[in-house]
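The protein record quoted in full:
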Amino acid sequence: MVLVGPGVPAGMIPHSRPTLSDADRQRVVEVLTSGWIVQGQEVEAFEHELAAFVGRQGGVAVSSGSAALHLSLLALGIGPGAEVVIPTYVCDAVHHAVVHAGGAAVLADADPRSASLDLLDVERRLTARTKAIILPHAFGLAADVAAFTALGVPVIEDCAQAIGALDGGRPVGSRGVLAVFSFYATKMLTTGEGGMVASDDARLLARVRDLREYDERTDLSARFNFKLTDLQAALGRAQLARLPAFIERRRAIAATYRRALAAAPCELPPDAAGGRHVYHRFVVAPDPPLAPIISRLAALGVQGRRPVFRPLHRALGGGAYPAADRLWDRSLSVPCFPSMTDAEVERVAEAVVLTLGGR
């Protein structure tokens, strides 16, 4: 069977796929033929360009978004005895980063509308040992960073799904003490695998840069091999140049879905004004159970998914996180990516209406 992605049969519209062009391929070929393919001038240029795009003084490119989180925590001095407040309704990588840094992850509930952190629940969980908050901009919707920085704890903005969104007129990633980005294949822009840390704090950036690589150092302090390559950076630079067009297309797809699903029995995602949403995911909320809905969509040739695999507290022994549980029970992400054709968008919309209307 021919696949268009892991486990996705030919003919099915996948939940997501990278948006690649001949220009992307040409930029990678140019670096390949130059003979310099490891970390070099392309990485340095990508760091400058992305930092400028999000309004920061500098950036450090690394091998993944997970590495960006890990090094950000280490740069802030997170280690044994330090607590880091994170969402329970989030990718496992956030929890892993805290554990790898030696800190203790303190789970907080989700905000039911934004699907990011609930401000009041975070405030309740702060202690004298709290050294950082990791605040994701979930699914492409900008969170209210200022409200969290007002708590007096360093905030790491997790912008893995939201580069290009605006928070109060400012780019996401421009307010936290550090901001992290992911360039995985299906993120807002891709380098295949890759990530970046951005900040205005030169000391923190220097610490991240020092930790990124271990070779030819006079001491044996623990460091990593978390570098990005020039091949990847060339692709990232080409993608970054097209990011505004990617976002415009995602918003156009979201607008089509809103019109088509206006009367469907489901909640639609927040239609945030002021550029707050870039629709990395278009997430609807039908009545549960989701499993038969996902199966019916698949039968119609559309891959739907839960946008979060499962809340962290369900893997860590439970706890009361009612908003996160409700989001997991009801949240369905449908295909929304720039390379979708108009015909594919219409097909997805029709499949969702048919599936939900036929319940």
